[in-house]
Design brief:
With 174 residues, this protein is α+β, with helices and mostly antiparallel strands. 28% of the residues lie in helices and 34% in strands. The protein has a single domain (5-170), classed as Gcn5-related N-acetyltransferase (GNAT) (Aminopeptidase, 3-Layer(aba) Sandwich). The protein has helices at residues 14-27, 36-42, 45-49, 104-117, 134-142, and strands spanning 5-8, 60-66, 69-78, 87-95, 124-130, 146-157, 160-170. It is globular and about 35 Å long. The termini are far apart.
């Protein structure tokens, strides 16, 4: 078995990214605001290619590759409005269940946070996570994120309600 490769996702990865996104929405519908059926019928790999940032952007998508297959993803997007451009958002975090237990989320988080530290003027990184996902909550806390609020009934999936933690990390000033 090969080592995990953590790397930026490029536009050439659009087909694999879209397939992994559909897998994430099907396997863990409670973890995402997007819906599997809606995404399947209203999105395409080409539309996902448009979401993949260029290398000259503060935005970044990280992928985890194992044995030549994309098995993990994590996105970072910088706010652009004048009053919020000091913030970035982590989104779309997923590792295929077949690849879990290898520290892939930690490796992707390290790459994203290293990138965030290098974004000029960035002061805060925020994310949201379903409260039931304690492994993810603990991972984010190990990286210095703190819970600043909990939203009850944030997502409704198959008649079940899920609460969501809102977490933030204050980027050290240089």
């Amino acid at each position: 078995m090969m080592d995990v490769i953590i790397r930026p996702i490029m536009r050439d990865d659009a087909d694999a990214l879209f397939a992994l996104r559909l897998t994430s929405l099907k396997i863990n519908p409670e973890a995402f605001g997007a819906d599997y059926a809606d995404t399947l019928h209203n999105q395409t790999a080409a539309s996902y290619a448009e979401r993949i940032p260029t290398v000259d952007s503060d935005n970044l998508m990280i992928g985890a590759e194992l044995d030549g297959a994309l098995v993990g993803m994590m996105g970072f997007v910088r706010e652009t409005r004048p009053k919020t451009k000091h913030m970035g958002v982590i989104w779309g975090v997923f590792v295929d269940p077949k690849a879990r237990g290898r520290g892939i989320s930690k490796q992707m988080m390290t790459a994203i946070m290293t990138h965030a530290q290098q974004c000029d003027g960035l002061r805060q990184v925020v994310l949201s996570v379903v409260t039931d996902n304690q492994a993810a909550v603990k991972l984010y806390q190990r990286f210095g994120f703190t819970i600043w609020g909990t939203q009850p009934d944030a997502l409704q999936v198959h008649d079940q309600s899920y609460a969501m933690h809102w977490m933030s990390y204050q980027v050290a000033s240089i």
